[in-house]
Write a structure and sequence with these properties.
alpha+beta; BirA Bifunctional Protein, domain 2; Elongation Factor Tu (Ef-tu), domain 3; 5 domains; 9-stranded mixed beta sheet; 6-stranded antiparallel barrel; 24 helices; globular; Alanine--tRNA ligase; coiled coil
Length: 882
């Protein structure tokens, strides 16, 4: 067996398929783009959907990749089993309507067995096939698989519901009897069974059917190949590792954790080994995910990040690590992945700061969780329960990150159990909620064969001209049929041999305009333009006059609208760079929308954007506009573009030729959109709003040119109106006048509070003299007029200092607001009475609720008319005490 590092294994796989004519696709961001069905990229094929469903035709129908992926459906098993991971890399080769079984199977066999490549012993390989797939079975035998190593399995059919489906073959590697964890006669002791001996390393899906809504399976017009090989599993074979965790992908993290855990060492105690593995796995996942723009939060992807961090911290505590430590694993992960993912190490300082901040915040949460666990156990004993209910256990797990086994262990020490079924029910409900949230979304579309067939050449010329004369209509589509003419009053899709209309792309909306006949008559209105699968600009038009293919037309773009879009698009480039300059290089574009009247720019950022930073960003963008920077565009290859310093987006796939947009020496980016020639054309830039729109994603909305002037003019008019009302002659004097007003208001408020306190004290003199004895306890009650909660607390302090009674109940109310306060003397509390119990008994009278300490509690409500009833309720409560 060869000795290969994880980096060498990954590269060997990619090199093999590159030799077979495949384009090596870079690993996409873990955050899906335009795919509501996925929370994370969870496989190699997840990034290929647009190719498989026919919405886009790839430049090369043969592709290969090593795609980072996240799956959290079995998070509870991470660390306990040899091969469960949250983050993993899926090696894959893909064919979109090109080669099929006759090529895919022999190539797989060659990669695995050839001495030039993996060089595995063919006698250690076992393959499963779908029983009805006799073609695959025969090709495997011809490739060299022994007949007794070929196993038919009924479940070897890949089907996710409506959409592409087909039979598949799973490839297993026999690790030998020394890895076997089941007996020889165990029914699971076979390739594909639940055992550690036969390790599944590769799955090849032969996607050849369309699963229709009616439940039938129709042949796909283009058959596809989709394969997946787990890098971690394959590396464990090359490195003769018992589990995935004893490989160079995880061991450095485990070793780094050992150094922080004092006397704990991996491989000594089974329970400790689980903790080490969980930390290593979760450290990898959060590091890469945060590097791709995900941030801790209470929803969606952010919740997954937060949950992983908390689980790892709890495991760290079990290893005796009390302080923040997980952030120290970030550069270790960066070093491991540097050969293929250099951006992780480059961002390690930023990623570590995010993790450390979350760790420090969770320390308090963890303490609260431990307190809750103690309370749950105490309540169980107090109520003579021998079991913690599932809801309580799930709250500890879900909110505080306590694994069920940790709760069960603590419960066992206390002599009670945990409702495992109740916990499982709560867990399933959470999974159902997550699944239902995405159930209505489209998974993978069905190929639109008509557009796939159309390969007529069509050239976009809108970078240089917005009117084209003599554009030949080469394709017309109506009612999903290719036709030779389209009639007035219909909506049709058109392709021309050349067009000045920009198709929606990269956040920039499509151009609108008109199609004119050769003599200048209106023939159609262009309402939308999208890219067809083979790259042509597909115009959606409202037909006014009969259009016929092969005739020539005049195409004219709405130039005013187009110009406004260009200004806003160039402004997004300036904004992108300004954010990097002001907030840091970690900011990444997370989406954009460029409309004629405004622009929207989403970006990844940890924390709030201050008003000061926002003002600096706006000023920096305007500075570039006023500097009249030249905007130049060059076409080159992606490698040269990156060497020029151009910023590339994770969400974009770049072809062999790219456009690089350079704005002076300030900004340089890959971009296929349209732009102004000089920044002075933008005129002015104004930020309208800034807000958070998701976990770690901020959004800026802004306007330029005339819209920016209008926004500033509205602000000026509003300020002038305020100045007039404050009787200020000039707007520049407004701040001073406002400061004066605020000081006056503050003085009046203090005077008012002083008067309220004085009045309350005068009323209290009468109230404190009104003492009654109920059930051997002295009670003072009273309703104070024109007071607030602050005055009630001050009166309670006076009452306590003077020891005027055992119990005090005061109330105040005005308009639709009421307040109550209850105080108990220390002796009364020692006798078993609690202010919190009394406040809960009387607060319903004011339609409110409250709580507090045993010697002091307060409540608020919306029914001042009920204050008298609350005083009477206090007397009744005290009378009921035994």
């Amino acid at each position: 067996m060869k000795e290969l590092s994880s980096g060498q294994v990954r590269q060997m796989f990619l090199d093999f398929f590159q030799e077979k004519g495949h384009a090596v696709e870079p690993s996409a961001s873990l955050i899906p783009v335009d795919d509501p069905t996925l929370l994370w990229i969870n496989s190699g094929v997840a990034t290929m959907k647009k190719y498989f469903d026919g919405s886009v035709v790839p430049a090369n129908p043969r592709m290969t990749s090593s795609q980072k992926s996240i799956r959290t459906n079995d998070i509870e098993n991470v660390g306990k089993t040899p091969r469960h991971q949250t983050l993993f890399e899926m090696l894959g080769n893909f064919s979109v309507g090109d080669y099929f079984k006759k090529e895919a199977i022999p190539w797989a066999y060659e990669l695995l067995t050839s001495p030039k490549w993996f060089g595995w012993d063919k006698d250690r390989l076992f393959v499963t096939v779908y029983p009805k797939d006799t073609e695959a079975k025969e090709i495997w035998l011809q490739a060299g698989i022994a007949p007794d190593h070929l196993i038919e399995a009924e479940d070897n059919f890949w089907d996710i519901g409506q959409g592409p489906s087909g039979p598949d073959s799973e490839i297993f590697y026999d690790r030998g009897q020394e890895f076997n964890n089941v007996s020889e006669d165990d029914p699971e002791n076979y390739p594909g069974g639940e055992n550690d001996r036969y390790l599944e390393v590769w799955n090849i899906v032969f996607s050849q059917f369309n699963h229709t809504p009616e439940g039938t399976y129709e042949p796909l017009p283009r058959k596809n190949i989709d394969t997946g090989m787990g890098l971690e599993r394959v590396v464990s074979i090359f490195q003769n590792a018992k589990t995935n965790f004893e490989t160079d992908l995880f061991l450095p993290i485990i070793k780094a954790t050992e150094q922080l855990s004092a006397d704990r060492h991996y491989g000594k105690v089974a329970e400790d080994d689980v903790s080490f593995r969980v930390i290593a796995d979760h450290a990898r996942a959060i590091t890469v995910a945060i590097g791709d723009g995900a941030l801790p939060s209470n929803e969606g992807r952010g919740y997954v990040i937060r949950r992983l961090i908390r689980r790892a911290i709890v495991k760290g505590h079990q290893l005796g690590i009390e302080d923040a430590f997980l952030y120290k694993m970030v550069p270790v992960v960066g070093e491991i992945l540097q050969s293929y993912y250099p951006e992780v190490l480059k961002q390690s300082d930023y990623i570590a700061s995010v993790v450390k901040s979350e760790e420090e915040r969770f320390n308090a949460t963890l303490a609260d969780g431990l307190k809750l666990l103690e309370t749950v156990l105490a309540d169980a004993h107090e109520n003579n329960n021998d079991q913690i209910n599932g809801a309580a256990a799930f709250k500890l797990y879900d909110t505080y990150g306590f694994p069920l086994e940790l709760t069960s262990e603590a419960a066992a020490e206390a002599g009670i159990t945990v409702d495992q079924e109740g916990f499982a029910d709560e867990m399933q409900q959470q999974r159902d909620r997550a699944r239902n949230a995405r159930s209505g979304a489209k998974s993978m579309g069905v190929q639109r064969d008509l557009l796939l067939e159309i390969k007529d050449a069509s050239e976009y010329v809108g970078y240089d001209r917005l009117t084209v004369t003599g554009a030949k209509l080469i394709v017309a589509i109506a009612d999903e049929q290719r036709v030779t003419s389209v009639e007035p009053g219909t909506t049709a899709e058109l392709m021309f041999d050349q067009t000045p209309f920009f198709a929606e792309m990269g956040g920039q909306v499509a151009d609108n305009g008109e199609v004119l006949t050769a003599d200048g008559e209106l023939a159609a209105k262009v309402v939308d333009v999208q890219h067809a699968p083979n790259g042509q600009n597909l115009h959606t038009v409202e037909v006014v006059k009969t259009l016929t293919t092969d005739d020539e037309y005049i195409l004219t773009v709405d130039q005013h609208r187009h110009s406004k879009i260009e200004k806003n698009h160039t402004a997004t480039h300036l904004l992108d760079q300004a954010l990097r300059n002001i907030l840091g290089d970690h900011t990444q574009q997370a989406g954009s929308l460029v409309e004629p009247n405004y622009l929207r720019f989403d970006f990844n950022h940890f924390g709030q954007v201050t008003d000061e930073d926002l003002a600096r960003v706006e000023a920096l963008v305007n500075e570039q506009i006023f500097n009249e920077l030249e905007v130049t565009t060059v076409e080159t290859d992606p490698k040269t573009g990156k060497e020029m310093g151009a910023i590339a987006l994770f969400s974009e796939k770049y072809g062999d030729v790219v456009r690089v947009v350079k704005i002076g020496d300030f900004s340089i980016e890959f971009c296929g959109g349209t732009h102004v020639k000089n920044t002075n054309e933008i005129g002015l830039f104004k930020i309208i709003s800034e807000s958070g729109v998701g976990a770690g994603v901020r959004r800026i909305e802004a306007v330029t040119s005339a819209e920016a002037y209008e926004a500033l003019n509205r602000s000026h008019n509003d300020l002038q109106l305020i100045a007039d009302k404050l009787k200020v002659s000039q707007i520049k004097d407004l701040p001073n006048r406002l400061d004066q007003q605020l000081e006056e208001i503050k003085a009046l408020k203090q005077k008012n509070e002083s008067l309220e306190a004085k009045m309350a004290s005068q009323q209290a003199a009468d109230v404190f003299n009104n003492q009654q004895t109920i059930n051997d306890h002295t009670l003072i009650t009273g309703i104070i007029k024109d007071a607030g909660m602050d005055q009630l607390r001050q009166l309670a302090d006076t009452w306590r200092t003077k020891a005027l009674s055992d119990v005090l109940v005061l109330g105040t109310g005005k308009d639709d607001k009421a307040n109550l306060i209850v105080a108990m003397s220390d002796e009364t509390v020692k006798a078993g009475l609690k202010a919190g119990d009394l406040i809960k008994a009387i607060s319903p009278k004011i339609n409110g609720g409250g709580g507090g300490r045993p010697n002091m509690a307060q409540a608020g409500g919306k029914n001042p008319a009920g204050l008298a009833d609350a005083m009477k309720a206090a007397e009744d409560w005290l009378a009921s005490i035994k």
